[in-house]
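Milestone M4 deliverable, item 7.
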Amino acid sequence: MPKAASLPAPARDPRQLRRLLAYARPYRLLFGAGVVATLISSSLGLVFPRLFGRLIDASFLKVGTQDTGPLDRTVLLLLGIFALSALFGAAQSYLLSRVGASVVADLRRALFSHLLTLSPRFFGEHKTGDLTSRLTSDVSTVQAVTSTALAQLVSQSFTLIGSAVLLVMTSARLSLLTLIIIPFVIGTAFTLGRRIRKVSRGVQDAVAAANADAEEAISGVRVVQGFTAEHLETRRYGQGVQLAFEAALARAKLQALMSGSMSFLTFGALALVLWYGGRQVMGGEMSPGDLVTFLFYAMQVGGTVAGLTGIFNQFQEALGASGRIFELLDEQPELQQSSQPKPLTRMDGAVEFKDVSFQYGSQSVLQHLQFQVPAGQVVALVGPSGAGKTSLVNLLIRFWDVTDGQVLIDGVDVRDYALADLRRQVGSVPQETLLFSGTVAENILYGRPDATDDEVRSAARAANAEEFVVRLKRGYDTVVGERGVKLSGGQRQRITLARAILKNPRILILDEATSALDNESEALVQAAIENLMVGRTTFIIAHRLSTVRNADRILVLDRGRVVQDGTHAELYESGGLYRELYDLQFRESPR
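Output delivered:
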């Protein structure tokens, strides 16, 4: 299968983190409460090393004494501190997890909502699997930054400063020995952290590419199995997984190198402290309790520095993922809406193409189309493949805009209507039906969500659908499966027609809605289509010319131009492309 285009790699944006954190702003009170709980828990953590030192001195420097009061009081105080620390730690965990989950939900909603504003051109150029990967795994990756990691940054920074101050107060000479190592730790963290960020972006890209391959194969599984291409798709997906694995392995190596470096530097510093501090205790310059206290504070300093490097890694990974997210959020909708749209409640449906040209990329698709369609007329669009039939109706519904000229409805340029108002007045029944995985009723209601049950049933009857719906196990509450897989082609098409009937559009677009059906289903669907076309301006994209003989008018397109215009009888009599196409299909003259 051909590879779709990828979004460009992002430039480094210093505002990226601020944009990400902006999604946490609505939850700043919860976040603030979580930070307060974190600071209280961290403050209590600074107290117990001092108490441990007192406990050591009370236990070992008063050997043989019967007075256990100081020991008992110290232990009780420690238990109280541990209990409070656990309580505030649990509060911190819940509050910040709630903030993170809320931010992720908001970000996913914003991203999905924005995706739906983008034009079909965008989705034609980008893989669905890559887009869904950004919507799911990339958003999850940034959750830690918008909640836990940020609070931990505050906590670890507070603990680092507090421990360093208490370290100096306990022993200035030992502190100097300990603090010398910190610049090496920070330098290592920043050097490796930058590389981790770059590799993390590669991991996300590789996972997204593998997901895109899987999504293509799964959505087209019938084609895959029909061509016995399972081994081909398995190999293709396996190659994508291997690339993701290699990228993840490269990241793991860097993270392991950082972890090992931090561990060596931290514990090497502690070993030096033990050596030098032990000599001071032996010389009577320090008590054993002070040495233990100092060791705890030194471990807190080392632990917080290591923790800060881990948080730095999380930020690097999240910034790589958020770059992919903001690429989508920065993607501008191709269709621009009028700042002062014309009011549109109910249109008549008169259509005019006024010197319309349309270009897709560098390819000219339509050239200087000029025709008018009175309200209520049925117009068939015929022509060879690639003549521009689908592009013509896509301009009418504004899936994209003209390059030159105007498309007018009731004398107003379609670009002057609000997009939602315009599309509410235009209904489309495609050749390839698309049903959603809900119930029959939910799929019909997609045409007008506020419709009543009676209106749904009335639309189903008009579409010749009710006769099979009532025979389903749960009737209108029957789940149709993904893409309507539990229904036949004719049944799916009639549900689609019922949806269009319920919408009650003034302009109707039919893309050869019966071409893939058997004779019985075609007759039922065709009867429903005739019901649907009554009183509406209708454009029929016709591949089988037998379906357009009764159209009020036929436009023949070739290479983006209207080359013939008239009724079936007129066009056949005059010869030209229409007669060639008709005779090619039927090999006989009409009677």
